[in-house]
Structures
1.
Amino acid sequence: MSPTTTHLRTCPLCEAMCGLRLDVADGRVTRIRPDGDDAWSHGYVCPKGATLGHLHEDPDRLRAPLVRDGSRWREVGWDEAFARCDELLAGVLARHGKQAVTAYIGNPTVHNFSLSRYVGLFIGMAGLPTLYSAGTVDQWPKNLTSQLMYGSMWAIPTPDVARTQYLMVLGGNPEASQGSLLACPDVLGQIDAIRARGGKVVVVDPRRTGTAAKADEWIPITPGTDAALLMAIVHVLFAEDRVDLGDVADLLNGVDEVRARCAPFSPEAVAATCAIPADTIRRLAREIAAAPSAAVYGRIGTCTQEFGTLASWLVDVVNVLTGNFDRPGGLMFGKPVAWSVASLPNPEHASGFTLHRWRSRVRGVPEVLGQVPLACLAEEIATPGDGQIRALITIAGNPVISAPASAALDAALPALEAMISVDNWLNETTRHAHVVLPGLSALEQPHFDDMIWLWAVRSAGKWSPAVFPPPADRPAEWEILTRLGAYCMGMRHADVDVRSVDDGFFAALVTAQGLDPATVAAHYDHGGPERLLDLQIRTGPWGDRYGERPGGLTLQSFKDRPHGIDLGPMVPRAREVVTTPSGRIELAPGYVTADLDRLRARLARRPDGLVIVSRRHLRSNNSWMHNVPVLVSGRERCTLLVHPTDAARLGLANGGRARVTSEAGQVEAPVEISTEMMPGVVSLPHGWGHDREGVRLSVAQAHPGVNNNLLAPPHLVDVPSGNAVVNGIPVSVAPVGFGA
Ligand SMILES: Nc1nc2c(c(=O)[nH]1)N[C@H]1C(S)=C(S)[C@@H](COP(=O)(O)OP(=O)(O)OC[C@H]3O[C@@H](n4cnc5c(=O)[nH]c(N)nc54)[C@H](O)[C@@H]3O)O[C@H]1N2
Ligand SMILES: Nc1nc2c(c(=O)[nH]1)N[C@H]1C(S)=C(S)[C@@H](COP(=O)(O)OP(=O)(O)OC[C@H]3O[C@@H](n4cnc5c(=O)[nH]c(N)nc54)[C@H](O)[C@@H]3O)O[C@H]1N2
Ligand code: SF4
Ligand SMILES: [Mo]
């Protein structure tokens, strides 16, 4: 036995960024505890954090590249794997051109030290005409409204939960997710604290979630109707003369336009559609306006729905109109210690931001922020003709589970001439690849979160060195991405010099910071994400600017303080963050308000009947942590939640099985009867369905669950953003025998 060593480590699994203490002996993680001294999380953790050792040791985790020969996988060396990628991509480029190549970027990209900082380089180098991501099944509506209101798609204001006196959560369940576009350890603890200091917490959700159970009030809402509720709140604010623009009053365009547009949306006009009494809506508006401070926060339930853009916009509008924007206790912009490549001005928008620059080939839907809906990918692969997709690169993604109409994608992928996956497992998607290029495990690489600090409730930073040395022959994912980017440019394997590409990338970023690349380069004898992070910190708001600001922060400052450095709560920043052409906050972007006609039509629509929504669980992480035994033990979690009155009407028994049918497909799942659901709405978690042949996830395959995206019709999108609608899908439900 070698002596036990203890390592401090930030958990990379979600936005809570918890500090952990890992005990390691004989090359294995023997214990994981919370780090009570962590400057950011102060000892908070969830059960997933304790499984980083399992993920690292998982025998199914890929440690060498795989190349497929027919239906058989062959483990190969890195040189052979890269040469095969080059050959595959060069073939497609020669036969069909760049238009036949695309990529899909999955969620773990954001949480990975090297992918998060280099995915932008890959995108820039590859120059692919189309790109897909998990973003269009997630926060695209919020990206769109932030782009139009503030001038940047990642300028997303976050609720100051630590100081607010009134928190309204719509379509988010931090009890499971631990916060999303809201980085804050222990959100539920913050909810307790709001109530303990005499404040109030309201949760608007079709399900009485674990978060709603902690709140003062749960307001069930018909899925997809948050925009109508919020518009009625805006209506009341104007009608009762409760509008107070607060500190941003002089920074606003469009207040009168909002006033004019809210007129038809009285509480009475929306009550039946939302299933919320008009009196309740009026009271909510008064409470928000009267609270000493209030933060209205909307998350995925307000995005992946029929009116995602309007709801995302109105969340911010309500905060603005009640003086709760850009001030403590309201919605505020985070202030990262280190800037993120993603938040730099987008070169594509240099001559102004435009929408609908091109349309998807098959369905003809317009691009928004450079992407079309992920649900288009299957048809772009399957439909012959000029521009047909023949090559796909997936990066940390599993769209066969996470994309709407996933059966069509599963069926289309085998037709690709080249599919390359940068992924650590053979999941439902990567099993179709020709080459799989695995990254290092989280514990084999350093960590310092990138984009997540953009919406953190405090400014802070934490450096985690690798716990285990990376195996000598293994490239990091930033090197993999750089190579793939180069092959897409038409460079051949033998000619790619990763180091010089990286030096060029770094020099460009240094120049963009107004510094001399040669002088800055002289500070380093290494490249990659660690060098980039040092630049991000040193040219960030607290940085030393390479000596120009003596005493300023550098990466070394964080290495010297392994529990992290806290730099305080959010501060008003709207004046520096807003970069719209007018220099002001656009409270009523025409592109967004144009969608109000569709919302008015919704008010006149007959009830949809039974609809389904998604949910998350604390012990899952989208589609990919079901291979950890301790996280899938216990009773089955992939169940259909049904309200008792619906169950009785439909003849469903608790523990029996139900067949759920939508226009897109059908699944069967065990029934869990619960008053957690509002009547008329059923819920199934997302991220399951591991019973596919060829998947190499031995634990997950024994707990497969079903894929709820088999029910999501590909054409259901939030029209302005193209974001998928995976909540509020009409379904019928019927029993299929007992316990079968
Ligand atoms: N019905 C429904 N569908 C949804 C949602 C919903 O709420 N309901 N949510 C949507 C949302 S918000 C998201 S973000 C997407 C998620 O969808 P995706 O991003 O497509 O899938 P994930 O399950 O997050 O992860 C994909 C894969 O990343 C790999 N991976 C994990 N860590 C690493 C790493 O460090 N490096 C590499 N290279 N690979 C790694 C794992 O093998 C995993 O299978 O799903 C969306 N789909
Ligand atoms: N444990 C765990 N943590 C995660 C993830 C995970 O899979 N597991 N995924 C991560 C990712 S990628 C993301 S994007 C975040 C998401 O984080 P959250 O946004 O907090 O996601 P959910 O927990 O799915 O909560 C969404 C809620 O929206 C409700 N809802 C559905 N439709 C509507 C509607 O029309 N209106 C309203 N008001 N509510 C609605 C659902 O009932 C559900 O309670 O979580 C992240 N964190
Ligand atoms: S809440 Fe859990 S998964 Fe998220 S960072 Fe903390 S320990 Fe990791
Ligand atoms: Mo997500």
2.
Amino acid sequence: MKKDAKFATKAIHAGVEPDPATGAIMTPVYQTTTYAQPRPGVHKGYEYSRTQNPTRHALEKNLTSLENAEQGFAFSSGMAAVDACLKLLKPGNEVISTNDLYGGSYRLFTTTYADFGLKFHFANMDSPKSVEALINDQTKMIWLETPTNPLMSVIDILAYADLARKHDLMLVVDNTFASPYLQTPLDLGATIVMHSITKYIAGHSDVVMGFLATNDKDVGERLKFIQKSSGAVPGPQDCFLALRGVKTLHLRMERHCENGAEVAHWLRKHPKVGKVYWPGFEDHPNHEVAKNQMSGFGGMISFTLASDSLEEAFDIVSRLEVFTIAESLGGVESLVGHPASMTHASIPKEEREKTGVTDSLIRLSVGIEHISDLIDDLEKAFAN
Ligand SMILES: *Cc1c(COP(=O)(O)O)cnc(C)c1O
């Protein structure tokens, strides 16, 4: 495939060659642990499936190409990918992270890796200057998530890439909410881009998987070593499903963005709605940054009720029929979540309210159903 192929072409073709044995146009599910060697040590590049598997390789090559990266590695979950990044560090090292952070990442940082001697600072990332004040000799990594969950803040990747370069730090960007279709952090100077493939990339709510990519040769070699040594690799059947899902990522994201915009504007006009968090609004505090680093605003929206009543929030989400109450996001179907009682339930009320996760905050993952059915569903749920 041409090196300068466009996203849609890469999503369909990158990494996918007709099967050398049969010409099968789809990469087969190589459901095998090991590979025959005609003589000891003589093989076709595949020895054991923790280290190499052809179905996984096809997926890795595809996603590596979508992130404009040199090297990429798939993991058995998004959290396994986060875990692999942290294994690049040593006891005593410090990480500066976004404070509005995916709950699973927060838990891994503050329990397992704090026990192993890593130190984490959770900072509001609006001002690189104030983050710079936290950097010392032990600081090795900046961890960004943008847009953030659930409040849809947008962090300036370019500014943090500059800061990371100046202090010789690794910059990791969790790109799960944007997907490579809307944002490619390595192009903006990040060292590593991380994904929960589970969400938009696989896109059909049927696979749990993670991914890391980099253009730093040394970091890539170390991640490859960690992937094979720790062994949190996905199975070939799941890789096949993710590879099938990614072929329509561009089409799905276009529709997620369109539907997201309609829903965000509808919510904003509704008298029962308080704040609406969506980076596409011109008066969103990070709208300019979002416009510069993203090619669309995605399908994730959070909002509060004017009453800020927990009861009313529960009533509204329970009346929705097209939107299903569930954790997770990024699938073709619309989902609705209540962060205070679901994803953020483990954070004390006072703490979560400080960051804006109030009792009535509702998070939507707007799917790709027909927009009029989504709006009707919301209208009915609010009207009752
Ligand atoms: C879901 C998610 C993860 C974790 O991924 P899993 O595949 O569930 O392990 C990490 N970061 C973000 C932003 C996520 O949404």
